[in-house]
């Protein structure tokens, strides 16, 4: 009797939890945090479970971090495990989106290139609720560090080809969404270009290293939000992936005023946040920075 009663209570609260969020005026986003490894099936199952959780909580879009498909132990394995966008991994992502009727932001995944066996692309894909890819962005800023003094060598360009195009923002259920990836956040020129193209939400799916994350993660993300007066959504990898790699975590959503409105703790999970475009418009009206830019003295940042 007690077990039946407890189940009924849980079912009641879950039902009204979903009903409450579905009645909210503004759309909800689910921002996901996970710990990818070289086990692609396990990573895919995590994406599936978090997507279902996001849907049950009435989110319009679920955002996943860089390397949500896998984080391999070596450069050789990283290249060998990559698939094209027609491969089984992206096909599974499409099915997850379609079954759950939810948009998915997956960035960046390891994209194999047809005519290149030594390099891949770091690719952020956006899938709509019908299971269709509606935008694809290939990371333009690659994280390269070869410090002779410290002995630290991390060269993304050893195995990744840089993208050659800034993709225009896409109309989504939460607003005009712009795609970026991780290290891109250190380059405000990109975020200003996206804002000038109409962006309302900037995305930075990431696998930020622990050391740089502790120092710069929050500061950089809040700066991008404040200076562009956009929402910033940053899904993140967290914790220990292998013997060589640990990620900072702290997935978060920041509003156009620069306030953190949701943030993950140190585990695999999702956070929910409202995207209030009326607030965005109000902030832009009350502080009309765009009207004060001296483009007569410096150029307006727009894609070539």
Describe the model.
The chain is of the alpha/beta class. The protein has one domain (28-292): Nitrilase/N-carbamoyl-D-aminoacid amidohydrolase. It contains seven helices and 16 strands. The strands form three sheets. Strands 1, 2, 3, 4, 5, 12, 13 and 16 form an eight-stranded mixed beta sheet that branches. It has a six-stranded mixed beta sheet with strand order 8-9-10-11-14-15, with helices on one face. Helix 2 runs parallel beside helix 4 (88-100).
Number of strands: 16
Coarse morphology: globular
Strand share of the residues?
Answer: 25-35%
Percent of residues in helices comes to 25-40%
Whole-number mean pLDDT: 92
What is the alpha-carbon Rg in Å? 20 Å
- CATH names the topology as Nitrilase/N-carbamoyl-D-aminoacid amidohydrolase
Instruction: Note poorly predicted spans.
Output: 1-14
The first-level CATH class is given as Alpha Beta
Q: What is the helix/strand order?
A: HEHEHHEEEEEEEHEHEEEEEEH
Structural class: alpha/beta
- The CATH architecture can be given as 4-Layer Sandwich
Q: Compute the number of helices.
A: 7
CATH superfamily: Carbon-nitrogen hydrolase
CA distance, first residue to last residue: 68 Å
Sheet with the most strands, sense and barrel status: 8 strands, mixed
What number of domains? 1
Short note summarizing the structure:
The protein contains seven helices and 16 strands. Strands 1, 2, 3, 4, 5, 12, 13 and 16 form an eight-stranded mixed beta sheet that branches. A six-stranded mixed beta sheet has the order 8-9-10-11-14-15, with helices on one face.
């Amino acid at each position: 009797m007690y077990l039946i009663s407890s189940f009924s209570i849980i079912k009641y609260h879950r039902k009204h939890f979903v009903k409450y969020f579905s009645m909210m005026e503004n759309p909800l986003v689910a921002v996901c945090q996970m710990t990818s490894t070289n086990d692609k099936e396990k990573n895919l199952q995590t994406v599936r479970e978090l997507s279902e959780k996001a849907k049950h909580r009435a989110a319009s879009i679920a955002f996943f971090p860089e390397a949500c498909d896998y984080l391999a132990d070596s450069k050789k394995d990283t290249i060998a495990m990559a698939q094209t966008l027609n491969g089984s991994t992206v096909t599974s992502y499409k099915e997850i989106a379609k079954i759950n009727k939810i948009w998915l932001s997956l960035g960046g995944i390891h994209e194999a290139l047809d005519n290149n066996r030594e390099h891949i692309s770091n690719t952020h894909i956006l899938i709509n609720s019908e299971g269709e890819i509606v935008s694809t962005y290939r990371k333009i800023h690659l994280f390269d560090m070869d410090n002779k003094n410290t002995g630290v060598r991390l060269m993304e360009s050893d195995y990744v080809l840089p993208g050659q195009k800034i993709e225009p923002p896409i109309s989504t259920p939460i607003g005009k969404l712009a795609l970026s990836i991780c290290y891109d956040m250190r380059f405000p020129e990109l975020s200003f270009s996206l804002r000038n193209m109409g962006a309302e939400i900037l995305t930075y799916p990431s696998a930020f290293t622990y050391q740089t994350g502790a120092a710069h993660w929050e500061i950089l993300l809040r700066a991008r939000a404040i200076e562009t007066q956009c929402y910033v959504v940053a899904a993140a990898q967290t914790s220990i992936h292998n013997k060589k790699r640990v990620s900072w975590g702290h997935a978060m959503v920041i509003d156009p005023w620069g306030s953190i409105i949701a943030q993950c703790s140190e585990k695999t999970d999702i956070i929910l946040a409202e995207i209030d475009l009326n607030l965005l418009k109000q902030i832009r009206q009350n502080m009309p920075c765009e009207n004060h830019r001296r483009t007569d003295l410096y150029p307006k940042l727009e894609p070539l």
